[in-house]
Amino acid sequence: MTTPRSPRTPAPTVRLIATDLDGTLLRDDKSLSERTVAALAAAEQAGIEVFFVTGRPARWMDVVSDHVHGHGLAICANGAAVVDLHAGGTFVEVRPLERSAAMDVVVALRAAAPGTSFAVELTTGIHYEPHYPPFHLDPGATVATAEKLLFEEAPGAAAPVLKLLAKHPDLDPDVFLAVAREAAGDRASFTRSGPSALIEISGLGVSKASTLARCCAERGITADEVAAFGDMPNDIEMLSWAGRSYAMGEAHPDVIAAASGRTVGNNDDGVAVVVEQLVAEALRAADTTAPQG
Q1: Which are the contacts of 111, defined by CB distance < 8 A and separation ≥ 6?
Q2: Of 88, 103, 208, 236, which has fewest CB within 10 angstroms of its CB?
């Protein structure tokens, strides 16, 4: 069941669907249901572009790479990168976090939230501090202090920084996010996407929303022609920007407040439920504008 906003005038036909992955399009076991795969294909067939917009790095996009049609693009790392999934995740655009700004954030958070540990996500892979939870999917990571990872010789030392990750062992996740924004919000953009006190830090002004807006502008698509889906705070700006937006059934309360509509949960194919409706709407609109004769 969905509960979309009821505007006074008919909403423009959706031309682009932007969807988060984890907790949104993907089920909890990280799979795509047959219904979801079919809905995405139907959307593309109806002329609606689909963008995957995620906090994931490009190297973790295999789960959806076979289901991106047409343009083949995806927005990764919370807007820090646009990648071509048809070309194996090749970077098309990078909006980096400057290393000096990243170091300023490290210093500020160490003072504001003692016990914080850090990881550095580069275009070439991730590296992390000794006390940071290890990434089992990235066995080639370098383990060193943030200072060494950002400024000394290490694998990928010359590569752009996509995200700085900050983990606290004890703080409430929303409290940690608020503390981080207060401590260094003038140096970078802060958000979170998981249940633990793990903050994702991008370049100032970089978000899912800002990069999606750039991609839409290149296509002549307005915000009113976009439908977006999400479940966590890193989706809030995107949901607020899109003309139609849907919070998942188990979404964070702030996400529900930001969205104009709500759908069922990710394990119940909440995105597919709405996409099927959008496709039907697009087909009806095409029928009414088709030349008669």
Answers
A1: 183
A2: 88
